[in-house]
Specification:
By secondary structure, this protein is an alpha/beta fold. Among the domains are: 184 residues, NAD(P)-binding Rossmann-like Domain (Rossmann fold, 3-Layer(aba) Sandwich), CATH 3.40.50.720; 72 residues, no CATH class. Helices cover 33% and strands 20% of the residues. The strands form 4 sheets. The protein has a 7-stranded mixed beta sheet. A 5-stranded parallel beta sheet has the order 9-2-1-10-16. It has a two-stranded antiparallel sheet with strand order 3-4. α4 packs antiparallel against α5 and α5 packs antiparallel against α6. The longest helix has 16 residues. The protein is globular, with a radius of gyration of 23 Å. The structure holds flavin-adenine dinucleotide. The site of flavin-adenine dinucleotide has 33 residues, from α1, α11 and α12. Flavin-adenine dinucleotide binds next to α1, α11 and α12.
Length: 372
């Protein structure tokens, strides 16, 4: 007889939803994670009393009511609204592209009509027919000024290539908001869990046992019959020892610094849009929670190529990787016991709300419980 109904690999947000719902219906779970902490990529480390988002800045935003209701059981959310600022050389602009951006870029522009006319004139001037690369695509959507100051350098840093060498299909739309409104997201709900994400995930796990610093392979070799079923929130290719090949990712490198000043940049997120500055963003973590600590912690974000062993941040859902992933899913479907889940098991970029919503579907399929 197995000791547990489920072994859950990974202690991130996807796993926490499953563990919470399984416990509610009387199923026993053991959670393991190779990292020394819970919460996966939404983990916050306390540095100088500030919740530092160790794996990149995380802002919760959603329009899915059942997800919003669900997370509010485990944390109270503050009223943080993401309003990034972009620095281009010695110029400073509000994001997303909105009337504040346009009136700063073109001082003669005050009204939505004037902004639309300015963009339309620049789009016409670019004279692009069928865009053949990302640069042409952007020029045909927003014109030269917005492209050169706010899109070009940032995108080139993100992809490590010139915009002229990137496919047009990467950018489908470049939404322009013709209101004076710096709220980055269009979602119905948004905020940061007060006290940080780790505390919220801890509340979701409740009494479910979690073993940290525990690698699946070694653990299962020593405990082959520990559970009837396995929910695997790690990379699917790794679990098959890359026998069909490796899935690819884009990665990030973070450099954090504690500064002996109270307020460094006056905003949580500042983007650097010129290519010559090697990082894409500086995050000042305390502003996510309106912190008043005497010191501050900032993190510079550098996009990076991914190689085996690096943290897999963004899946590259191109033809090669999508087809490889489908082959792994096929392999997995022949196994009865292991179910792949989460952003790594699904090889998908999921915002937190989508990861939680996908976990609800897993709960329904596996436990027969519908979350309304
Ligand atoms: C840079 C960045 C910024 C983001 N910002 C936002 C944002 O602002 N808003 C938003 O909504 N979403 C954001 N996201 C998305 C968010 O991080 C994910 O939705 C979320 O982390 C998914 O949780 P998960 O549980 O599926 O995966 P994870 O959090 O990755 O958890 C998986 C866990 O499994 C463990 N694991 C893997 N393999 C093994 C193994 N073999 N043995 C043991 N343990 C294993 C890992 O150590 C990890 O802890 C961002 C993502 C990135 C990359």
């Amino acid at each position: 007889m197995s000791q547990y109904d489920y072994l859950i690999v990974g202690a991130g947000i996807s796993s926490a939803v499953f563990a919470h719902e399984a416990a509610k219906v009387g199923k026993t779970c053991l959670v393991i994670d190779r990292r020394p902490h819970i919460a996966g990529n939404v983990y916050c480390e306390d540095i100088e009393g500030i919740n530092v988002h160790k794996y990149g800045a995380h802002i919760f935003h959603t329009s899915i009511r059942r997800v919003w209701d669900y997370v509010n059981q485990f944390a109270e959310f503050n009223n943080y609204v993401n309003s990034p600022v972009a620095v281009y050389k010695d110029e400073l602009y509000n994001l997303p592209f909105n009337m504040n951006t346009f009136s700063k870029m073109w001082p003669e522009v005050r009204t939505p009509e004037q902004a639309k006319a300015k963009i339309a004139a620049q789009v016409a001037e670019a004279g692009i027919g069928e865009p053949s690369n990302l640069e042409e695509q952007a020029l045909s959507l927003v014109g030269r000024d917005v492209y050169e100051k706010l899109i070009k350098g940032y995108t080139e840093k993100q992809w490590g290539r010139d915009c002229k060498d990137l496919p047009a299909s990467i950018i489908k739309r470049l939404p322009c908001r013709f209101r004076y409104d710096n709220n980055y997201f269009n979602d119905r709900w948004q905020g940061i869990p007060m006290g940080g994400y780790t505390k919220m995930v801890e509340a979701m796990f409740g009494d479910t046992p979690v073993k940290l610093n525990t690698e699946y392979r070694e653990f299962i070799a020593q405990n082959p019959d520990v559970a009837d079923r396995v929910i695997y929130c790690g990379p699917i290719d790794e679990s098959y020892d890359y026998q069909l090949g490796r899935l690819e990712y884009r990665s990030l490198r973070f450099e954090s610094e504690i500064l002996d000043e109270e307020n460094h940049q006056g905003n949580a997120v500042v983007n650097y849009t010129e290519r010559e500055v090697p990082y894409t963003r500086i995050i000042e973590h305390k502003h996510f929670e309106y912190g008043t600590q005497p010191k501050t912690v900032i993190t510079r974000e550098y996009p990076a190529d991914w190689k085996p062993g690096d943290e897999p941040y963004y899946p590259i859902n191109d033809e090669r990787n999508s087809s490889l992933y489908a082959q792994y899913v096929d392999l997995a479907s022949k196994e009865g016991k292991v179910v792949f889940a989460g952003r790594l098991g699904g090889y998908k970029y999921y915002d937190m709300d989508k990861a939680i919503d996908a976990a609800f579907d897993l709960v329904e399929a596996e436990l027969g419980v519908t979350i309304a």
